[in-house]
Write the C-alpha cells for this entry.
Amino acid sequence: MPQRPLHLGPLKVWPPVVLAPMAGVTNAPFRTLCRGYGAGLYVSEMITARPLVEGNAKTLKLSDFAPGESPRSLQLYGVDPHYVGLAVERLVGEGHIDHLDMNFGCPVPKVTRRGGGSAIPAKPNLLRNIVRAAVANAGNVPVTIKFRMGINDDWLTYLEAGKIAQEEGCAAVALHARTAAQLYDGQARWEAIAALKDHVRSIPVLGNGDIWQAQDARRMMEQTRCDGVVVGRGCLGRPWLFRELAALFEGKPCPPTPNLGEVCDVMIRHAQALADWMGEPMGVRNFRRHATWYTKGFRNSAALRQILVNANTMEDLRQALSQVDRTEPFPATALRLSRGKRAGTQRVALPEGFWETRHSSTVPEGAEQAGSGG
C-alpha cells in the first residue's frame, strides 16, 4: 500500500480515502460520525449552484458544516457556467469551503433528461466551460470533479473528461467505474480506473465503486495504481469502515467488527446527532433509512426494522434497540450485502436532439432549476 498522503492543492489528505457525496445521507451529522472513525476527506451532499446563488433556504441549510468541521468539503452541481462561477465565488469569498467537488456523474433520469449530471461529459465543450468557471473563481481552493465512464458502453467519455479536468486546472479526478446506463448494477469495472490513470498523469486519480471492505481498497489501488479511493454505499450502516480503512493504510491490524450492541450504540449516536441538527421529528425520520442499513443481515432484523422505520421519537428508537441481544456478532454474510441504490440497468434519458448537439456548449434548457434545493 502507498504510504503517501493524497495532495489536493494545499490540502493533505491522509489516509487517501474520500467519503462520496450521497443525497440525503452525507449531511453534517453523518460526516462527523464517519470522521470520528478515521481521517480523510468527507464530502457534503450535492448542492445546486443556482439556488445557492439565489439564497434558497433549503440549499443554504444543506451547505452548512458542523462546528469545527475541517476540511470543509462541498459538492456542487451546476450546468450553467454563469451560475457555477457565481456560486463558487460566493462559497470561496465567504470562506465557506476548503475543497470543492463538482458532480458530473448523477445518472438519475430526471437529471439526465434535462442534459445534466452524467450527460454533461458527453458535451465536452460545455463540460470545459463549467469546470473553467469553477476553477477561475476558486482561488486557492482545490477543485475536483467526479464522473462515470460515460452514457453507456457505446458512448464512453471518461478519458476525455479526465483530460479536460487536467487541462483546466483541477486538483484531481474521481471515476465511478460504471456507466450511467449501469446505474449501480453488477461489478464496477476497475480496469477503467487504470486506463484513466494512464491517461491523466499530472493530477491524482481516485477510484470509486465496490469498496465494501478495507481489503477492496487495497485491491483497487494495487490493480489500478490509483491515488486514493472514494467510498459510497459500502459505509451505509457501517461508518466504522473508515476505521478499518485507516488501519489498512497505517499498516495496522484490522479492528474487530462491532457486535449488535455496539452497532445499536452507534445508531443512537447517529440518530441523536440528526435530531440535534434538524430537530427531533425530522431527524428521526431521516434516520429511518439508516436503521435499515445498520440492521441488515442480523437475525430477526426484518421485525426490528419494522419497528425502527415507524419510530417518531428518540425514545421510540431507544426502546426498540433495548430489546436486542447485544452479544450477537456482526454477520459475516452482511459485509458485502449491497446497500443504498438497488441494482438494475436503464436506458439513459436524454433531451431530444442531444446526440446531434454533442459539440455544442449551449446550456440545456431547464437543466438547472432554481429552487431545486440541492
Remarks:
- The chain has two domains: 6-255, 260-334.
